[in-house]
Amino acid sequence: MFRWSIGRFCGGEEQRVGTRTIHIGHHRAPEADAYMAEKFCDNRIVSSKYTIWNFLPKNLFEQFRRIANFYFLIIFLVQVTVDTPTSPVTSGLPLFFVITVTAIKQGYEDWLRHRADKEVNKSIVYVIEKAKRVKKESEAIKVGDIVEVHADETFPCDIILLSSSNDDGTCYVTTASLDGESNCKTHHAIPDTSSFNTAHSIDTLQATIECEQPQPDLYKFVGKINIYSNNAEPIARSLGPENLLLKGATLKNTKKIYGVAVYTGMESKMALNYQGKSQKRSAVEKSINGFLIVYLCILLSKAAICTTMKYVWQSVSHNDEPWYNQRTQHDRETVKVLKIFTDFLSFMVLFNFIIPVSMYVTVEMQKFLGSFFIAWDKDFYDEEIQEGALVNTSDLNEELGQVEYVFTDKTGTLTENTMEFIECCIDGHTYKEETAETETFSETDGIQPVSGRAEKSREQLFLRALCLCHTVETQVNDDVDGIVEETELTYISSSPDEIALVKGAKKYGYTYLGIKDGRVKLENQQNEIEEFKLLHTLHFDSSRRRMSVIVRNARGDIFLFCKGADSAVFPRVQRDQIEQTKVHVERNAMDGYRTLCVAYKEYTLEEYHAVDRQILEAKMALQEREEKLAKVFDDIETDMNLIGSTAVEDRLQDQAAETIEALHKAGMKVWVLTGDKMETAKSTCYACRLFQTNTELLELTTRTIGDSDRKEDHLHELLVDYHKKLLYGFPKRRSIRKGWGEHQEYGLIIDGSTLSLILNSTQESTSTNYKSIFMQICIKCTAVLCCRMAPLQKAQIVKMVKNIKGSPITLSIGDGANDVSMILESHVGIGIKGKEGRQAARNSDYAVPKFKHLRKLLLAHGHLYYVRIAHLVQYFFYKNLCFILPQFLYQFFCGFSQQPLYDAAYLTMYNICFTSLPILAYSLLEQHISIDVLTADPRLYMKISDNAKLKWGPFLYWTFLSAFEGTVFFFGTYFLYQATTLQENGKVYGNWTFGTTVYTVLVVTVTLKLAIDTRFWTWINHFVIWGSLIFYIFFSFFWGGILWPFLKQQRMYFIFAHMVTSVSTWLTMILLIFVGLFPEILMIAVKNVRRRTPKGGLTVSEFPGTLDNITFSPIPVYLDDAIVQEALNPGIYARLLLQFLVQPSDLCRWQGYVSYRGSPTHYALPTNLTAYLECRLYHQFGPLDSKQWLEVYKNVNRVLGIC
C-alpha cells in the first residue's frame, strides 16, 4: 500500500518488485496513509554451524554420511545384536576414536566461530534516538536506525551514508576485510542530507529509502531516497554503490559519519558472501573410493568363502556335532537360511578390519598439518608486501602434484601491475620524455615529421583529458593505504593505470590537484589553476571497457572526455581520425605496452540537458538500473573526436619467464587468458617464453575470420585447415610430457569474439562440432593465448578443458576480481596477492605473493604432497590386508568356527596406536628427493603425473606384497608350532600364543617396511617408528599381567612373556620378518644394480638440445653412486662423467666450439652438453662456489686436452 503511494512521485516508473522500504530513524513519512512496519532480521551474525543442543545429533548425522563410518556403524550394530566371534569393542572403539577426533576438531572450529561471532555481536555502537547518542550492542541495531561511526571503526551493518564530518559529505573507507583491497575508497552522501551532520539535526530528517532486497554482490546497489519537508512534494534522489558503506569495512581519514542501517545481520553483503564455495575433490579421493570398492569385494568374497566352507565342513556328521560340543535344541530349530545369514555376518565382522576406517582421519590430519609447510615456507615470503603464502583449503595439497594445464592471467600475474607512463600519441604525433627533468613534449617519430608536433590546443586538450577522466583521489599525508605514488601529492586509486596516466600528465606540466565539492582542480603549464565542475561520471566496467566524465569549465563550456581500449573507442569516433592513431596503438602493443585511446565531445547547453535527463532517469530506476545505464552510456559515447592514445609499460615479473619454462619442462601446458589486446599479449608471451622463436602461431581472431556475414563459414574453414595441419604434422605417439624441440611447435591465439562464435553458434550441432575441433587444436598446440577475454569466457575455457577426454587436472592463477570465475572453475585455484585487490586471493585455494612462487609450489610441494599421500593410502591398505589375511587362513584350521586369531585388544589397538603414528610422520616429513633438486629439475614432476602412484599397477603390487607377507606370517608360524613342545617344562603353546606370534611379526614387519621406504630421516621419524615398537612391547607386557597384576584373569595372562622366552620363537620371528621384507630388499637391490649397469648408447632426447653426428659411448643414464663417493671433488666427478659420455674422437671435434661457462679456455663443449653437466653437478653437490667451478674447468680441460 505504502509502496504504491511512493510510486506517484516517480512519474513513469514501472511497478517495482522485490524491494524494501526503510523509514530513516523510524520516523513515519507524512504521505504514509497506513504505515505497517516491515519485519527485517536483527543484526546478529551467525557464522557458527552448531549449537549446544544440536551439536551431537547434527555432527553424528554428518559423519555417518561417510560410507566408511556408516559401514563400521553397521558392523558394530551387527556385533551387538548377533552372536559374533569378536567383541563389539573391536569395531566400536576405533569407530568411536575416529568419530570423537573428528567431532572434537569440528567442535573446536565451531567454538572459534562462536567466539568470533560474539566479539562482533557484542561490540559497542552508537545509535541516534530522540536526538541523543545511545550506546548499544551491535546485535541490537535494527533496519532504519541512524548509526554514528567514528574514524578507524568498522561499520556494524550495511549503511547508507547520510552525512559526514567533511563539508562535502564524503568519507574514506577501506574494504580489506571484504575484498582485500587496502586502498581508500571515496563514498558520498547525497547533497540533500550532507548538511545533517549533528545528532540533533540528523534526528529531524524525515525520509524513506526504497532499495533492492539483499544480494551478495559487493559492488552493486540500487536504491532511491525520498526526502520529505514542509512542502507536499518529496525530493527523490538515486542511490548507488558510492552511497553504501558495507559491514566490515573501516572508516578512514574521516572523523565521523551518520548513516541509516539498510541491511543487517545475515542479510548484510559480508554475511551473504560467506556462503561456502563448491567443494572440490582431489583425484586421490576418487582413487581411495575405487580401492575401497576392491577391498570391500575382497571382504565379501572372504566372508562368502568361509560361510560356504563352513557348511561343507559340517556336512560330515562328526564335524557338525562332535561329542564334546552337542548342539542345543534352539540351534536345531533355527531356520537354516537365517543361520547361514548370521554366519555370513559373523565372518564379515571377523574380517571387517580389512577396511581402514582410521585412514580417513589420518588423511585429514596429514592434509591439515601438511598445509602449514606451505605457509611456513620462507621462500614464499615477499618483502614488499610483508606476507607469505596462504592456504585457504588443505584438501587439495596432493592435487598440486598432478597439474596438466595451467591457466594464467597476464596483467598483475605475469606482469608486475606497476605502471609507468612511456609515451603518448596526439593526432598521429608521438611524444616521449627526453630527460627526467623535461617538463614539455618532444616529437620523436611522428607520422608527420614536417609539422613536428600537434597543435598546442590539442596537446592541452589531451593533457586535460588525462587529468579529468579518472577516479584518482588525492591525500596530503603519506600514511595512506593503497597504491601510492610519492609525489608532492599522494595519489590513491584502485587502478594503477590511472595513477600512471595522472603522473604522466604531471611530467608534462598538467598537475591534478584533487576534487572537492564536485569540482576538479588542476594546474596547467603556466602554473594557473583550472577548475572544472564534475557533472557526471560514466564508470568503467569490463563490458564497456571505457570510462567517461562530463565536465564544465569556468567559461561554461561542457565536455565529455572518454578513455578506453581501442576496440571500445575506435567504433565511436570519426572514421577519418582513426588511421593516424591506430598505427601508434599497434606499434605500442607490439612493444608490449598497455594502450588506451582518448576522445572527447563538446556539448551545447541543450544537448547536455537532454543527456542529463537521460542519465537521471536511468539512475532513478530500481529495476534493471544497470542495463538502462549501460544503454544510456552507449548512446552518449558516440560521435566523439579522437585526440590520441597513451602507452603504459607493465613490466614482466621477476623470474616469470623461467617459471613458465620450468612448467613446460615439467610437462604442463600453459594458457594465458587475458582481457588485453592481442598485440600486447603476444609480445608478453614472447617475453615470458610462452612462445618460442620457432613457434608457428595459428590465429583465430576477428582479423583472420573477417567481419562479413560469412564469419561462421570462414571460422569453419580455418578450424578444419588448422586441424589438418596439426593432425598430419604432429607425431601420433607423442605425449605432452615429452620435452620440446622434437618437432615443429604450434601456438594458438584466439580472441573473445571468436570464442563466442565457437561456443554460441547459430546451430547447436554446428556449435558442438566447432567445440570438438577447437579443443583438438588446442590439445595439439604447445601454448595457447586467449586475448580480449571476459571473466565468464575465462571460466568457459577452463571448463572446456576440464571436460575433455581424460579429465586433466587444471590450475588457474590470477590476481584480480576478473579472475575469480576461472579460479573457482578449475581444480586448483591460485590467487596472487597483487595490486588489483585481494578478491582472487580470497576466493582461491592457495595464495602466493608472486607468479615465480608457482614453480616451487608445484614442482616441490606438489610433488612431495602427492608422493606422501599416495604412499599413505597404499600403506594403509597394505598393512590392513597383512593384518586380516592370517585371520582368514586361520579359519581353514579351526573348522570355520569364527574363532579370532588375535586378542580383542590387539584388534582394537592395531590401527589406533601401533601403526598409525609412523605413517603419519612419514606423510608429513618424507622427502624422497630433496626440495632443491625437485625445484631445479622440472622433469622429475613428470614421473608422478597422471596419478602414477595410485594407478592399478602400484595398487596391485602393494596388494600382492601384503598377500605374500600375510601368507608368510601365518604359515611360517604354523610350521613352527608343528613341534610338540616348545617350552622347557614340556607344555605346548596355545592358540593365543600362536596369534600373538603372528601379530608380533606383523607389527614389526609393517613398521620396518616403512623404515625401509623412508629416505629423509628426522628425529621425529626415529621417535615414532622405534617408539611404536617399544610401545607395542610395553603394552603386551602390560596386557599380559606382568606390569599390571590386576589383569590376571584375562586370557592373555603371561602369553607374551612366555612367548619371548622361547629361542625357537625368536629365531622364527626374525626369519619371518626377513622373508617378509625380502621382496622389498630385493627390489631395492635390483634398482641399484640397474642404475650401475650400462644401458647402451645415450639417445639425443636425453640431452636438453640436439647433437648432430656424435657417437655416444654406452654409459649408465645415472652415474654410479660409487664414483660419487670416490670422487668427492666436483671437478673429478665432471671429468669422470664426461669420459663416460662420449668417445675421444668426438671430443676432438668440439675444440673452440663454445666457451664453457664463460671460462677463457681454448677447449669447449656444446652448450647442451654443458647444461647436462651443470645439472648433474647441481644434483650431486648443490650450488658450487668459485673454487669448485675452477676445479671443474681444469678437469674438463684435461679431458678435452687429449687431442
Question: Could you describe the 3D structure shown?
Answer:
The protein is of the alpha+beta class and 1203 residues long. Among the domains are: 126-274, Distorted Sandwich (Calcium-transporting ATPase, cytoplasmic transduction domain A), CATH 2.70.150.10; 384-413 and 653-725 and 745-759 and 771-850, HAD superfamily/HAD-like (Rossmann fold, 3-Layer(aba) Sandwich); 419-433 and 455-478 and 486-651, Calcium-transporting ATPase, cytoplasmic domain N (3-Layer(aba) Sandwich); 861-1082, no CATH class. Helices cover 44% and strands 16% of the residues. Strands 14-34-33-32-15-28-31-30-29 form a 9-stranded mixed β-sheet, sandwiched between helices. A hairpin with a 5-residue loop joins strand 22 and strand 23. Helix 28 (853-890) runs antiparallel to helix 30 (916-925) and helix 38 (1130-1141) packs across helix 40 (1167-1181). The protein starts with a helix and ends with a helix. The model is unreliable at 1-17, 435-440, 442-451, 478-487, 731-742, 1093-1127 and 1143-1164 (pLDDT under 50). One of its GO terms (cellular component) is plasma membrane. It is found in: Cell membrane; Early endosome membrane; Endoplasmic reticulum membrane; Membrane. The chain crosses the membrane at residues 290-313, 344-363, 955-977, 989-1011, 1023-1046. The active site is at residue 409.
